[in-house]
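User: For a reading group we're discussing how well predicted structures match intuition. Take Transmembrane protein 216. Before you show the prediction, I'll give you the sequence so everyone sees exactly what went in.
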Amino acid sequence: MVNSSLTYEILMYLNSFYFGMFATCEIGMGTLKAINLNYEDGKLLRETCVLLGLCLLESIRIHLGKKGSLSDHGWQVILSVFVTIPCAAGVIFLLWKQSHVLKLEYILCALMLLLQLTELVFATLFLFSLCKQPTYD
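Assistant: Thanks. Here is the predicted 3D structure of Transmembrane protein 216, as structure tokens, for the group to look at:
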């Protein structure tokens, strides 16, 4: 039997480092694209707002997930699971709806989506393990 709490905590820990690298690369590539490429009216502002919103939401999601997993508070993990949906939507926007997408962004966004999906699965397993009655053998 897999300890879903431990696995979820390890995934959140890994994601805290990966997201720091992801956000740094995305902001750097966004700055590079803003300087060197032409954008239609308002698209650069929209893409920047999506990226900054994603950074804020993902930071909140990681904080809630780590705190909820460590203290076995299910409500924080549930909130983290619900915040995963707009975070994944932001990554999908960066992956498919941007005006200009670099190959590195495809790789980084695909890895981020895979990590979020894996965290979602283990967060669900962790929540189910919190709901069952303890057995004393």
